[in-house]
Amino acid sequence: MSSERSLVARDARVEGFLRHLRSERQASPHTLSGYLIDLTQFASYAWFEHGRRDCAWEAVQPHQARNFIVRLNRQGLARTSLNRKTSSLRSFYRYLVREGVVAANPFVTVPTSKAPRRLPGVFDPGQAERLLAAPEAYWRRHAEAAGASAEPAAALAGVRDRALIEVLYSAGLRISEAASLDVGDIDLSTGLFRVRGKGGKERLCVLGAPAMAAVTAYLRQRCGLGLGGSAAAEPLFVNHRGGRLTARSMQRSFKLYLREADLPADYTPHRLRHSFATHLLAAGADLRSVQEMLGHASL
User: Fold this and answer.
1) Is there a single domain that holds both residue 136 and residue 72?
2) Which domain holds residue 7?
3) Among candidate residues 80, 98, 116, the one where a domain is terminated
């Protein structure tokens, strides 16, 4: 390969290209070496393997460019390396077109591979159970430390935040969407409700039986303390003064519950939304239905 690289490096068109990179783009020696390696690999495929010792750059056709990349792909070359080689050769031919050596760039039609989307993390079932148990455990300890006077408010916070977590997961809500819910939004006989998401888009959501039971228990306890009221326009999730619980407050509490449940500190409420989608798909739901439930154009 070193002798082949020397042949390519002495090619007048390659020399001009590397000089262009060095002077106009201030390319480093490492970058120049990378370009030379990629050009040599293509020259080996196109000519050297067939006994030729010269580089007929002007004779390369689009199908040869595509077949070269296909060959590398079949050899198991990483996506990032494939993209780099495609980019190197495309840049070289762009230079040759500009210099009038060739009329067209044979690599212009060779697509680069898109980076795979990183799948969002999800709660596994055991983690979800620990998280759901965390609010009541946290507030029980808080009440024990603070004394009997703190018990009613602590008990309410525990059942409220369990209900919140159940709703976030069961309906795949964003935390801002949960914070904006009113008492009258959810039909507790069916679990159906509408939510207005990003861009003002409205979608139909449904709560599962555990979430409905958690919300019912929370509202019953809240009513017993005379907080927030039961009118349809009253906020669903309220603080100890009866005002609407804010998304920021929900996020702060979520961090406390992660610690209580011994879960990673970088987990976020949005992970529950990802879990909702992942678990639905794993259970056989079709992709389009899950997209609509999340209010997404795509997943």
Assistant:
1) no
2) 2-98
3) 98
Indicate if 69 and 197 belong to the same structural domain: no
* Structural domain total, the chain: 2
The CATH number linked to 61 is 1.10.150
How far is the CA of 221 from the CAs of 179, 245, 288, in angstroms? 19, 16, 38
Q: What share of the chain is helix, strand, coil (3-state, %, to 5)?
A: 65, 5, 35
Give the mean pLDDT per block of 10 residues along the chain (299 residues): 84 94 89 94 93 91 94 89 93 95 93 64 86 94 79 90 92 89 91 81 86 93 80 88 92 95 90 71 51 47
The answer on 204 and 64 residing in a single domain is no
The CA distance from 81 to 86, in Å, is: 9
Token pair for residue 82?
């494939």
Domain boundary among 52, 81, 98: 98
CA trace torsion 201, 204, 205, 206 (10° rounding): 170
- Residue of 202, 153, 197 lying closest to 175 (CA atoms): 197
Our CA angle for 251, 255, 256, nearest 5°, is 120
Measured CA to CA, the distance from residue 271 to residue 269 in angstroms comes to 5
pLDDT at 172: 83
Give pTM, 2 decimals: 0.56
Query: Residues with Cβ < 8 Å from 19, sequence gap 6 or more?
Result: none
In a domain, 45, yes or no: yes
Residues 156 and 48: their CA atoms lie apart, in Å, by 78
Place of tokens 């079949």: 74
